[in-house]
Specification:
Layout: H1 2-24, E1 31-38, E2 42-46, E3 59-72, E4 90-95, E5 103-111
Parallel strand pairs: 3-5
Antiparallel strand pairs: 1-2, 1-4, 2-3, 4-5
Length: 114
């Protein structure tokens, strides 16, 4: 029984360390939103927390051939391309620094904890 507790404690510790390392390697994102729509070359995003009947403006982010997509969590192998995104995915987005009016994603990280 004592070995089982130690094994469980080590497993939980490894999972926590995994998430800390995985989360910290991506740095601070420009946007943290949830996917509400996916088109051919754009992604529509909404705030993570919507209170009641609150009105909010959707963010429209353009996706280019240079946009990279990765994910954090156990389901990270399921999200490798922008076409793998689904409605309801939580994402962190880094934008390209350009002077154009349209916001283009440089990097997208999907947060899939479970």
């Amino acid at each position: 029984m004592n070995k089982v507790k130690k094994l469980l404690a080590v497993t939980i510790l490894l999972i926590i360390v995994w998430y800390i390392l995985d989360y910290s390697r991506h740095g601070i994102a420009d946007l943290k939103l949830v996917v509400v729509g996916i088109n051919e070359n754009t992604i529509e995003l909404a705030p993570l927390n919507i209170v009641g009947d609150e009105v909010y403006i959707l963010e429209e982010i353009y996706v280019s051939n240079n946009t990279t997509l990765t994910s954090i969590g156990f389901k990270s192998i399921q999200k490798r391309h922008v076409k793998d995104l689904k409605k309801g995915d939580w994402v962190r987005i880094w934008l390209e620094s350009s002077n154009s009016e349209k916001k283009t994603a440089k990097k997208i990280v999907v947060i899939n904890l479970f």
